[in-house]
Specification:
The protein has 33 helices and 25 strands. By secondary structure, it is an alpha/beta fold. A hairpin with a 6-residue loop joins strand 13 (628-629) and strand 14 (636-637). Helix 4 (68-84) packs parallel to helix 6 (135-146).
Length: 934
């Protein structure tokens, strides 16, 4: 730390800035014109730069003006140690990476050791440590701090307070930890358990995949330190997201899942008999299940703090936004109107990354981008790269374009600590520092825990085939337990015999647990994959969701009443005022109007609502306007915060421009708060392509795999208006392909009233066994279409209707020869053409509002009313190989009863739609005419 402060004008300059002034003075002496005018004037008035008139004057006086260049070089050297010391640090356990100390050499700056000896230590430190007498001591001291087992990168941080705080912590020696002899013994015991668990499985279940932690054993030590500090701070919850490597060890030693439970899973027998009877451990499992290294758990410790490890698939980093969303929900109180109250110190996330995945998977920067965005920040996450220096079989030089795998984090001003995983005491120090940083600054921080992988990607791989140099070195490398045991023996804290006995005792503990499993497993029932009856039963049919007219009328008035001093944009105010008309017997309640009334009633029922997506506050199609902006001040006003009877919070956040990250985040939020109606809206339906892994791995299958229920709502604008391939289809066929076991609801609506009722139905199921996600192919041009609009009575009575019959068609039962089935905009296109049904006695139109679960019973009832119908026709906008036809075809065939089944729509295509509006109109008109013809 520089300490060049005094009464002269040069007291304003410290560190490298003072060095710059010195350098400019040398230039001024030979060419005054080459120096900034203000500096030149200061040099003329005050002469050569001095270092102040403080107590340092005596020693500073020894630095003559001719040595200013040397002092400047010394400052450059010290700055380089702080900035580039990590390149020369001892952070690689295998010592297989070249160290770059070129910028730390004295000769690089034209300095000698004697030059530095002549400089007082007080030039570089305010209060030099006792052993630091001169500049050379200062340089060597800084080298020891910045090139040891922990290396630091923080020069990229813009905020000066942060940089100074980090630098002071390092240079004041506050990061290092000192353990007592007993603490060191306890640490060795933990390392022995961590290693012993892996060794026991390796010997007992030969060839079984476990993705062992070996080589990064101190990851568990790192997490234990976070547990300890979190409990000391009385935090409520610590949430961990990680890929599969090391997961079983973390479940065992951080989540306290018993050895018996783990060994039972390896033995293929139920682990429920070994679940702790005190309820401290909660595990969920779906009926179809998943591999053991994808499972999670919740541990409720005696301290009152919960520890949660997220369930997640092998898609490496996709759990990151999920755990971030869960953390936000754990931090928020949502039982009052307005914005939720957030306490970022109530819970926090730890995200454990792979070294190849961190720079390779795009979801990583997507999640980092949430860290300081108001609707998504969680007060800082702890990131850990479990760095085994290889990706499956891929070496680092084929894996990334950056020096470190951690480099992408620099763009988000995240401080980075590189830590040698073979030094457990340094690992503890890094954890302590990171926790303190997160608490103080409310920002993300990253620990790059550098180790290795003792075996192949899984335990059946032979890594010498693809990575011989690395693995010859690994096979000769002692484990961290062995290294730390030798260290304690060398320090006379333990004997060789005690270290060996510790290992033997741990193995005996494992063997006893396994023997218990073998004894119990003889009585075990076979594991069943049958779908439970309550899942097959689905949700309550025709759930009443109407709202009293007086309640809706009053709410509508409140939504259109603003503070007297608030200036709503004039044009928008006129548009919103039209929402009074339906309550005066004029006009219809359109889509967005029905939505806000549904939201208000859900808040009055006590369910919080959280909505996010690109431009959701206004709505992509300028239809929603949930958040108003004062025309003169820009101040936000949320009408839903000001309705009477509201019992819960409401937020609508315009999200960062990402899909995968946001879907994962909202899914996680709803997992943590199952009573919250969490809604994600795509800007256009097809944008959800970018979140496909989230739909495949989490939203559609989490219940059957992991026993995790979700009520997430996804609004996907869909319909063909001639806007080209990327703004037409929401790829609804992909969601339908994933339908099974009542796993979610998929709807394509043609009625604002039905939208009102399906939202209310969804909210009523939240937190219940019948809860499941909801996918809605939401409209674009239909948002304001009069045929979609609702009357007030449509909202005050009834329930969501899975099927609607087209008014005006099918009146003369004996004349109906053809029954058409359509959804969404296609149904309205047909309705526009048939009008009141005149001239179309030969057909009846059924609007299939809910596609899954498919409403077979109700459709069968309608078909039965038309015994003379000869043909059932499925009409859609999408190409034949897309859309709903491929899904609905099998259901319609079951209902056909020898009737002809036909398809009307676009032919098979590789692209979803035409590229220009005119071609679209021609094709759409053809579909309508073909469907309606006799």
């Amino acid at each position: 730390m520089s300490n060049n402060v005094g009464s002269s004008p040069y007291a304003e300059f410290t560190g490298p800035n003072l060095g710059y002034v010195m350098e400019m003075y040398e230039v001024f002496k030979t060419n005054p014109e080459a120096v900034d005018a203000e500096l030149a004037e200061m040099f003329r008035r005050f002469g050569a730069p001095d270092l102040g008139t403080t107590q340092q004057d005596a020693v500073v006086g020894e630095v003559t003006p001719g040595n200013f260049g040397k002092v400047l070089s010394a400052y450059k050297l010290l700055d380089a140690i702080r900035t580039y010391g990590h390149l020369a640090a001892d952070i690689y356990p295998l010592n297989d990476r070249p160290k770059d100390s070129s910028r730390l050499e004295l000769s690089y700056y034209g300095l000698t050791e004697n030059d530095l000896r002549e400089m007082p230590a007080t030039l570089f430190f305010k209060q030099p440590p006792v052993s630091i007498d001169n500049g050379l001591d200062a340089v060597n001291h800084l080298k020891s701090l910045y090139t040891g087992k922990i290396a630091y990168e923080f020069a990229h941080i813009i905020d000066e307070e942060e940089r100074n705080w980090i630098q002071a912590k390092i240079e004041n020696g506050e990061i290092a930890v000192t353990l007592s002899a007993e603490e060191k013994k306890a640490l060795l015991e933990r390392l022995t358990r961590i290693e012993g668990f892996e060794k026991f499985i390796h010997r007992t279940f030969v060839g079984a995949k476990r993705f062992s932690i070996e080589g990064l054993d101190t990851l568990v030590v790192l997490l234990e330190e976070f547990v300890r500090r979190s409990e000391d701070e009385n935090m409520k919850k610590m949430l961990i997201g990680m890929a599969h490597r090391g997961r079983l060890n973390v479940l065992t030693h951080i989540l306290n899942k018993s050895y018996e439970m783990m060994f039972a899973q390896f033995a293929g027998v139920p682990d429920e008999p070994f679940l702790p009877e005190d309820g401290s451990l909660e595990v969920t499992r779906g009926w179809f299940g998943d591999v053991k290294y994808h499972m999670g758990a919740l541990y409720k410790g005696e301290s009152g703090m919960e520890r949660f490890l997220a369930y997640n698939p092998s898609h490496l980093e996709v759990v990151n936004p999920v755990i971030a969303g869960q953390t936000r929900a754990a931090q928020e109180t949502t039982d009052s109107p307005g914005i939720p109250e957030q306490d970022t110190n109530a819970a926090y996330a730890i995200m454990i990354h792979g070294d190849a995945a961190f720079p390779g998977q795009g979801i990583v920067p997507e999640t980092f981008n949430f860290s300081r965005v108001r609707g998504f920040q969680t007060g800082g996450s702890i990131h850990i790269i479990a760095n085994n220096m290889i990706g499956f079989t891929t070496e680092y030089y084929d894996s990334r374009s950056t020096h470190y795998s951690s480099d992408p984090a620099k763009g988000y001003e995240v401080p980075i600590l590189h830590v040698n995983a073979d030094c457990p005491e340094s690992v503890i120090a890094a954890a302590a520092f990171s926790f303190e940083y997160r608490t103080k600054f409310g920002k993300d921080i990253l620990i790059d825990l550098i180790g290795y992988r003792r075996y192949g990607h899984n335990e059946m791989d032979e890594p010498l085939v693809t990575n011989p140099l690395m693995y010859h070195g690994i096979h000769q490398h002692l484990t961290v337990r062995e290294l730390y045991g030798k260290k304690l023996v060398a320090e006379n804290i333990m004997t060789d015999e005690e270290v060996t006995k510790l290992d033997t005792d741990v193995y005996a503990t494992m063997q006893k647990a396994y023997d218990n499993v073998k004894e119990q497993s003889a009585k075990a029932e076979p594991i069943s994959n049958e779908t439970p009856d309550y899942v097959l039963a689905g949700y309550p049919r025709d759930l009443e969701t109407g709202v009293e007219e007086a309640t809706i009328r009053r709410m509508n008035e409140e939504l259109l009443t603003y503070p007297e001093e608030y200036h709503v944009f004039g044009k928008l105010e006129r548009i919103l005022k039209r929402r009074e008309d339906p309550f005066k017997g004029k006009g219809k309640i359109d889509w967005a109007h029905a939505e806000v009334l549904a939201f208000g009633s859900i808040l009055q029922d006590g369910n919080p609502i959280r909505m996010s997506g690109q431009d959701v506050q206004r709505g992509t199609f300028a239809h929603r306007h949930l958040v108003l902006h004062d025309e003169k001040t820009g101040e936000e006003y949320v009408p839903l915060h000001h309705i009477s009877g509201s019992k819960a919070s409401f937020v609508a956040y315009n999200s960062p421009l990402t899909e995968a990250g946001i879907v994962g985040y909202e899914f996680g939020y709803n997992l943590e708060d199952p009573k919250a109606l969490s809604i994600w809206e795509a800007q256009y339906g097809d944008f959800s392509n970018m979140a496909q892994a989230m739909f495949d791995q989490f939203v559609s299958a989490s219940y059957s795999k992991w026993g995790q229920q979700s009520g997430l709502v996804m609004l996907l604008p869909h319909a063909y208006e001639g806007q080209g391939p990327e703004h037409s289809s929401a790829r609804i066929e992909r969601y339908l392909q994933l339908c099974a076991e009542n796993n979610w609801t998929v709807a394509n609506l043609s009625s604002a009233a039905n939208y009102f009722h399906i939202l209310r139905r969804q909210a009523k199921m939240l937190g219940d066994k019948s809860m499941r996600p909801l996918v809605i192919a939401s409209p674009k041009s239909l948002l304001r279409h009069p045929l979609v609009g609702a009357d007030v009575t449509d909202l005050t009575e009834g329930y969501f209707q899975t099927v609607l019959e087209q008014p005006g068609t099918g009146k003369n039962v004996d004349k109906v020869k053809k029954i058409l089935f359509a959804s969404g905009k296609m149904a309205i296109d047909l309705a526009e053409r048939v009008k009141d049904g005149t001239g179309y006695d030969h057909l009846h139109i059924i609007r299939v509002e809910q596609l899954y679960p498919f409403p077979s019973e109700k459709i069968a009832e309608i078909i039965a009313r038309y015994p003379k119908a000869k043909e059932l026709v499925w009409v859609q906008e999408e190409p034949k190989n897309m859309g709903t036809w491929g899904f609905a075809n099998n259901y319609i065939r079951e209902l056909a009863d020898n009737k002809k089944i036909s398809y009307v729509g676009r032919i098979h295509r590789s692209s979803p739609s035409e590229g220009d509006g005119e071609s679209h109109k021609i094709e759409q008109n053809r579909i309508i005419e073909e469907a309606l013809k006799k």
